[in-house]
UniProtKB/TrEMBL annotation:
The keyword Transcription regulation applies. SUPFAM superfamilies: Winged helix' DNA-binding domain. The lineage of its organism: Bacteria, Bacillati, Actinomycetota, Actinomycetes, Geodermatophilales. Residues 11-110 form the HTH hxlR-type domain. This is Transcriptional regulator, HxlR family. GO terms for molecular function: DNA binding. It comes from the Bacteria. Keywords: DNA-binding, Transcription, Transcription regulation. It holds the Pfam family HxlR. The keyword DNA-binding applies. It comes from Klenkia taihuensis.
Amino acid sequence: MDAPTGVREHCTIAATLDLVGSRSSLLLLREAALGTRRFAEFAVRTGLSEPMTARRLAELVDAGLLERADYREPGRRVRQEYRLTPAGLDFLPVITALRQWGDAHAGVPGGPPIAVAHAGCGGEVVAQVRCTHGHPVPPSEAVVTRLR
């Protein structure tokens, strides 16, 4: 799958990595996908320092992948939690693909730490490359076309 000449300077993969390419950002998005909402939980579950957690959460909010929402526990002050936006939800297949690739190739001791299943049927949730007609597309069948 060779890219046409001149594509690299306008690469959407590079632009995406500029938004979410850091390890810490991907870990925060993983946690958001798993249901984490509160700042302290993000810091603990990712192992990031509080300043790094704050910085990366703010970047993900600015990038439009997370949004802040107010909440209040009884007798406490108003605080903010973080939720995936529609763009953040659109990123979930990328998180799934990273998990799937890691399960197969990263060699985590003891095997995969989690399994993700479809609540409707119990089948494993996987990422697959398909065309808009639903056909699986192996790399040898992907054709790159320059659009501009």
